[in-house]
Amino acid sequence: MTGMLGSAYPWVKAAHLIFVIFWMAGLFMLPRYLIHHQEGLAIPGEPERWIAREGTLRRMILTPSMIVVWVLGLALAANLGLFEGGEGLGWLHAKLALVLALSGYHGWAVGYARKLAAGRPTLTPRRLRMVNEAPAIAAVLIVVLAVVKPF
Questions:
Q1: pLDDT-derived band of residue 99, with 50, 70 and 90 as boundaries?
Q2: Exposed e or buried b per residue across 112-132, where buried means at least 16 C-beta atoms within 10 angstroms of its C-beta
Q3: In the 3-class helix/strand/coil scheme, how is the chain assigned residue by residue?
């Protein structure tokens, strides 16, 4: 695979995968933090600790990783000819839709952390635990699309 990236393609792809791992780690951690934060709202001093943890995770891992994933991913997509209407890229369109959904989930989780910081939970603990599984389902689908390229 050469395209516009030339010999840098495998390095860009490797960096993309590394930052996907970082982003997914953050997307798996933050919802767990939110569950513990919500459960600790009535415990003196506990909410402040979770607010600090969530903020650090967001600033150090989650948001920077998402930005790098998008930049490198779009470079890889351009290399495949996505923006020139390349053939056989249905799998990539589906993958991008799922990554866009994950980005929305990221935004939702950050927003919910802000609600918890204000002491206003809106989900039951059970529902929050169920929502926690969304990144895992998306990751499975994205990996299958990227590896198998079914359409």
A1: very high
A2: bbeebeeeebebeeeebeebb
A3: CCHHHHHHHHHHHHHHHHHHHHHHHHHHHHHHHHHHHHHCCCCCCHHHHHHHHHHHHHHHHHHHHHHHHHHHHHHHHHHHCHHHCCCCCHHHHHHHHHHHHHHHHHHHHHHHHHHHHCCCCCCCHHHHHHHCCHHHHHHHHHHHHHHHCCC
Q: Note whether 22 and 61 are within 8 A (CB).
A: yes
What letter represents residue 37's amino acid? H
Question: What's the rounded mean pLDDT across residues 91-119?
Answer: 97
Q: For the residues 61-84, what does the mean pLDDT come to?
A: 96
Task: Note whether 27 and 102 are within 8 A (CB).
Answer: yes
Q: How do the domains of the chain map onto residue ranges?
A: 3-148
CB 64 within 8 Å of CB 1: no
